[in-house]
Amino acid sequence: MSFDIQKLREEFPVLHQQINKKPFVYFDNAATTQKPRVVIERLNDYYSNENCNIHRGDYYLSRKATEAYENSRKTTQLFINAQRPSEIIFTRGATDALNLVASSFSRKFIGKGDEVLISAMEHHSNIVPWQLACQERGAKLKIIPINQSGELIMDKYYDMLNEKTRIVAITHVSNTLGTINPVRQVIKAARQKNIPVLLDGAQAVAHMKVDVSQLDCDFYCFSGHKMYGPMGVGVLYGKEEWLEQMPPYQSGGEMISNVTFAKTTFNDLPFKFEAGTPNVADVLALEQAILFVQSLKYENIEKHENNLLQYITQELQKIDKIRLIGTATEKTSVISFLFEDIHPYDTGVILDKLGIAVRTGHHCTEPLMDFFQIPGTVRAALAVYNNKKEIDLFTEGLKMVRKMLV
Amino acid sequence: MSIEDIESEVVSEFEMFEDWTDKYNYLIEQGKSVKPLEEKYKQPQYLIKGCQSQVWLHASYENGKIKFRADSDALITKGIIAFLLRVLSGRTPDEIINAKLSFIEKTGLKEHLSPTRANGLNNMIKQIKLYAMALKAKNKN
Ligand SMILES: Cc1ncc(COP(=O)(O)O)c(C=O)c1O
To answer: Which whole-number Å values give the CA distances from A239 to A1, A14, A70, A196, in the listed order?
Structure first.
């Protein structure tokens, strides 16, 4: 049994509006997803009835808020099947989590002449922090190449792993291409050489079940806002053995155990990595997003999104001069393309006039655009609340684009 | 005609269209009519980088007036370039510096010039104004 999409759409207030007198079609879900009522209400509820600083005040509401915050950590732990709640660090998002690891891990474990492996399809958030860290440590950033379909060339990857490799940091799912990387093989090969692996799961968690214990990855991160949760909160999972050894990233309140002017001792995990007043409201709303996704069940999500992907791919191929970018065998419901004779920017402008929201440009993956030698793509990233009717409006829109611009 | 006269001419041209498609068809038509910049000017020193579409701008100064030519890889961007050139090219530095460019707002083209529209047009206008200011300063000395 799959679910009732119409009913599901009712849960998302944003979807029910007109843009330029046309029904709003939202296909920019890889940038951020819309929020269901439960998430919006949780935010409202927290600020209306429960707002307090946590881990500090010994009074009723503060204790309650602390408990709720730590409960969300447990929900998150179970969500990705981490071994302990203390392995879940709340961050501002995936970018923040990646910066945390790149900065803290490199200070302890990366030195002159060492190597860090990332892939050619990384988001800038998983490139630049490593670039900076490598510069600082005198290490080398190595790029795992991809093929024309937008898949990692695994043989090259295996060859690149060596005794100088300190960490492999790659995306689980590509935001531009939708490619699902063979992360099990990636991890297995690294494991044989005792090299830790970080997975950027920003584009994965809304679409597929992630089990960090089964994957046996060392770090995993994602943003709440790309999985129906609020903006401003994300998660870093790290194996305790790594997090224990890593130095603090930011410092201040909450992350300390004792402070004197001579010396500070740091708090235990996870608090060592959560300096300052945490983003309590968003952490609580993130928990609602997790429960929401779990209530839909991943098998239903995958089935529905796969249907949409097949349909949109088939419909796009009927239109003249379309070039698909990213044709991996394993894909999420993201489709990137461009017209051979129309700039992606122009396509985006006309679609916008038709009430259709897609992303055009390089999608924060400039090196990937250079690889394909294109200025950018038009990207339709579908989520669980999208339907075939919207895809029809979209393909109608593309025909209009051709009519106007060619 | 003064810059303001041309601006109001452009505004009334756009007012003829009720439907956005007619307006954009007109814009695209104008874009197609812009004479492409020769390859020798499509070089990094003439490039105004936008995040998505690129703009190349070339300026020459003759008889007290600045002549601009420009091009873009995106057609809608080029359409807006056509109007900017119509209004600003062949003018004295003072005229350019003082141009209010209110037609952009009045024609509804402003959405293409918001800082988040990464098409290089905002920077193109900035660059045009800078040219004019630099020439004015130079003329004084
Ligand atoms: C693959 C990937 N990694 C990281 C990020 C950064 O996420 P955020 O901007 O939420 O920190 C994104 C966002 O687009 C992404 O798609």
So the answer is: 37, 37, 18, 10
